[in-house]
Amino acid sequence: MDAVVVMGVAGCGKTSVGQALAGSLGWPFLEGDSFHPAENIAKMSAGIPLQDEDRWGWLDTIAARIAQARSSGESVVVSCSALKRRYRERLAAGGLRVLFVHLSGTRELIHSRMALRTGHYMPTSLLDSQFAALEPLAADEFGITCDIDASPAEIAARVAPLVS
């Protein structure tokens, strides 16, 4: 396994679960948001949803970091929305073996979590656009869906045995 990508809409817990999973696996954690160019962050901060063309370079940068880790003999855990199948295909391009872990929850639950967080550029006003863009994992994709009904540590504990 080259990487585990913890995916889902904004506010679903990608970072918290990703960090917990990376810790339990002993793998490095990469925060996908940190790879967004300034233009993307400015758009989202202004309440403007990203379009496919905004995301391609960001996704390619993350895929390159996964490939770099693989060439160094490492596996990584990455947080990345990966909302659409074509985004997930882009992240796994070039023969990378990537397990996608879709964190799934209701709009109401995720909205309430987003409303509580501070210091993040993603406004709650963009949540509906995230759900509109989301293409849940298909049966033929390499991935699992986890309900966000538990703590990040508990979710990571459910996923870790599937990775090892």
UniProtKB/TrEMBL annotation:
Q: Which UniProt keywords apply?
A: ATP-binding, Kinase, Nucleotide-binding, Transferase
Q: Gene3D superfamilies under this entry? A: P-loop containing nucleotide triphosphate hydrolases (3.40.50.300)
The catalysed reaction is: D-gluconate + ATP = 6-phospho-D-gluconate + ADP + H(+)
Annotated PANTHER family: GLUCONOKINASE-RELATED
> Highest taxon of the source?
Bacteria
Per the UniProt entry, what species is this protein from, by scientific name? Azospirillum rugosum
Quote the InterPro entries the UniProt record gives. Answer: P-loop_NTPase, Shikimate/glucono_kinase, Therm_gnt_kin
- One GO molecular function term? gluconokinase activity
Q: In which pathway does it act?
A: Carbohydrate acid metabolism
Protein's name according to its UniProt entry: Gluconokinase
Protein's UniProt keywords contain Nucleotide-binding: yes
* Lineage per the UniProt record: Bacteria, Pseudomonadati, Pseudomonadota, Alphaproteobacteria, Rhodospirillales
Task: Give EC number(s), comma-separated.
Answer: 2.7.1.12
Concerning its family, UniProt says: Belongs to the gluconokinase GntK/GntV family.
